[in-house]
Amino acid sequence: MNIFRVSADILHLLSILVLLLKIHATKSCAGISLKTQELYLAVFVTRYLDLFWNFHSLYNSVFKVVYIATSSMIIWYMKRHRGVKQTYDKDHDTFRYLFLIVPCAVLALIVNGRFSLFEILWTFSIYLEAVAILPQLVLLQRTKNVDNLTGNYVFLLGLYRAFYILNWIYRYATEPHYSAWIVWLSGLVQTGLYLDFFYYYLQAWKQSKKLQLPS
Amino acid sequence: TGKGEAHDEL
Questions:
Q1: Which of A49, A84, A116, A174 has the maximal Cβ count within 10 Å?
Q2: Chain A residue with minimal CA distance to B1?
């Protein structure tokens, strides 16, 4: 465990909490992609299947449970909460998630560390996490006007990925046998997807004005 | 070691 890894996990948790808090406080989920949230839940569930029999550390187990619980709560708010579900941007959130799930599943069947059910599901979750933000980015692009909290959410998620890259570099330098190229490549793709968004986010922040994405 | 190592990450 190193400082980059811990920072990354905390940033990840913060991003989810920012979103939950926004929904809870404003009773609105405008601008948030339900597709992306459902994909993240799928990522967590397929990756953390081993929660019950592969105990690594209390740290890992607590984070796994918290990630699954908090993202389930976001989905519950968006689909079931009487006030919140009416604010969901259904007409703009039309990304077909099978376009992401099917290629990730096929790739996980072909490119994996070991051909076993749990290893393939784990690899699938790594690939899916890399692209799960796409429906959210498309929704932001369509609605143009990004409110502060939604902007912060995507920014924190991007920062979390950047810190994971630092963690890998650190581990590669300090642990003799550490190598995980499937995770590294997926992580690079995932972080790359945020770069365009980061540019506009930082520009808006520098000029301290509302974040607006170009058409 | 090797391929399984990233399993200790979240």
A1: A84
A2: A177
